[in-house]
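Take a look at the protein record below with the fold in mind.
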Amino acid sequence: MVELQPTDTGVLNAATAGHVPTLTFVSDRLSLTDTVRTRLAARQWSGRLIDLPRFFDAQPNTFKPGAVLLDAGDVHLINWKQLDDKIRLLDQANIPVILLNWPVSMEFSRFRLASKIRSSSIEEVWARIESAMCFALALAEIPQQEEQQRQLQEQLKIAGAVQRNFLPQTLPATDKVRFAHVYHPAEWVSGDIFDAARLDETHIGFYIADAVGHSVPAALLTMFLKHTAVLRETHGNQYHIFPPREVLNHLNRQMILQHLKGCLFATACCCQLNTDTMELSFARAGYPYPLLLRPGREPQQLHSRGGLLGVFEEMEFEQVLVPVQSGDKILLYSDGVEPLIGEVDNSGKFQFSDLFLNLCDRPVMSMMSTLESAITRWRRSSSEVDDITLLAVEIL
C-alpha cells in the first residue's frame, strides 16, 4: 500500500489559473505523500483534497483540466451506483480517474480513461498520475491550438485575397486574340503568378512564374517576381518594350542580388506576341515547354534553353521566334497540372494524354473550362496537391 499522510489543507499548490492541470485527490481521511506534492509543484501543477460528498456533488467541469485520484480505502462509504455514474460522467468529459488501492475483484473496463492501481511503489503511483495529468493538459490546450489554427487560416485567407489582387483583373482582348486562364492554389496562397498586358498597339506580353514550393515562402517570392518582371518601361513620351530574354535576365539578376534565404528559386516562361507580324517570341527558365496547339495537328512543345531563376548569375536564356496563324493557341502551364497534360514515356518522348488531345481543337474558353473541371475532379482524388496555373491565348 502507498503510505498517505493526514492533512488539514485542501490545496497542494495555489497556482490554479489558466490551463494549469489540477489533480483532485478524493478521500475522507488522507492526503498525498510529500513526494507526490513536491513532484506536482516541480511540474507547476496544482492539487486539492476533497471529501466523497463534495466529489459526488461536483460537476465534471469542476475537474477540468485535470485528473481525479480516488482513495479506495474509503470503499465502505461509497454508493456503488453513484460512483459508477460519476466515473461515467467524468469519462465522457475526458477526465482520467485513477482508483488507488482498489480491490482486484472490481472491474470497470467499460470506462475509457478510468484505471486502477494497487501498488506499494510511489514511483508507479506517480507514473500513473503524471500520465493522467499530461493527458489532461494536452486536452486543455486543444481549444487554444484550434483557435490559433483558426486565426492562422483566417490570416492566410486574407493573404490569398491580397495575392489575387496582384493578378490581372482583366486579360487582353482584341479582334485578333482572346486569353483564358485557370488559377488553383494548393493552399490559401500560391507559389504561382501570371500576367498578361497590351504593351502597345501591336505587342502583347504575358508570362507565368512559379516560385519553387508553395505556401507562404513561395507566395512571398511571387510578390517579388511580380514587382520585378518589367515588360515595358516608359520615359516621358517614349517607351521601351523588353524582349522576353531581357525580362528573364533582369529577374535572374535581381534574385541573385537579393541573396534570398532558404534556397528560394523560381521557374518562368515569358512570351511576347506581335499581332501585326503574327510572330510569338518567348524565353523560358526551367519552366515546362509552352505548347502550340494548331487545329488538326498534334500539339507541339516549343523548345528553348534556360535554367532556373536565382541560381546562377551568368545564366543565359534562349529566345525563340515562332510564327503563328489564325486558329492557333499558345498554352503555358505550371508543372502542377502536368499529369493531366501528359507524361514522358520510356523512350524519353512526351506523350499527351487522351483528355488533353480531345480538347486541343476546342475554342480557348471551352478548352480551359473543361480543363478546370477535370482539375477539380483530379485534385479531389489526388494525395499530392500542387499550385496549378494555366494561361492560354487564341489567335482569332
Notes: The first helix runs from residue 34 to 42.
